[in-house]
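Please, is this right?
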Amino acid sequence: GPRSTMVAVNPLFPRAALPKQQRPITIASGEDFSRFNTMYYLKGALAGGICCGVTHGALTPVDVVKTRMQLDPVKYNKGMIGGFRQVIAGEGAGALLTGLGPTVSGYFVQGWFKFGGVEFFKIQAAKALGDEKAWNNRNGIYLGAAAIAEFIADIFLCPLEATRIRLVSNPTYAPSMMSAMTKMASEEGVIGGFYAGFGPILFKQVPYTMAKFAVQGKVAEMIYDGMKKQPSELSGSANVGVSLSSGVVAGVAAAVISHPADTLLSKVNKAGAGGSGGIVSRLMNIAVETGAWKLCTQGLGARCVMIGTLTAGQFGIFDSVMSALGASKFHFHDPSKGH
């Protein structure tokens, strides 16, 4: 009968041969999920690695000064610009690029898993739920996908970040990233040296990434709604413009949410900070010593500018690389609008 010919005509979707009521909703829905194959996720991961590596690499000088200000606020008390001058005067301009290599490689790896992971988990959730449920729960999907992807990314980032902070706070520790990692592993063990900060990194990065992706998704959607356009109806540069503007808002929101943890993390990586107990008791001691208001505000202005720029850059570069690779990004669709 006609059923067998359907299977023969379309071997990719043997499900189409099922009677209508048993067909999965994804086939009947507006989104063609067949284009989200392994190649798509690899492109997403590559675009993520590039956008995070490039943006964090470019901000290395800012990060060097910020880390010094957090570790030694007494000496570096002249603000961001003053801090730049102090570092250059004391150690030469080259010091501003301390940790450039580990920063770029660390964040390439992190961006690979973070952006690639968010795309993967977001699309898998949308596929499993079908158009309508996915649309109604899109904020929850953003938050969940971002949390899982960030957790995975941090497993890879944590050793690189611990080594980078060690090198920035003690430039004479080792001549290179690899030698510093080998030295830390032999002196302190893999867990002690590299994963001492894993809890705090999750505590800082997971809320940060959840805010970043959920706010960016929401703001981008509001911009498209305001323009009464779908992403597919706009030019590449217009879509990148939306990514940039929604990225700034997302970056500032994410910076404010994760700032207390960021300050704690910079302080806890300093040898001897917060006493000699376990990581939680040390964090509590540092939090009490610093005080809540200072934790939330110390260096916040600089960080909002930094993370706002960074996040806008990341979403802009991510979209540019994706379109250069010929991949069109997944967007949630409102089934009632029939797009």
Q: What stands out?
A: Residues 1-29 have pLDDT under 50 and may be disordered. DSSP finds 15 helices and no strands in the chain.
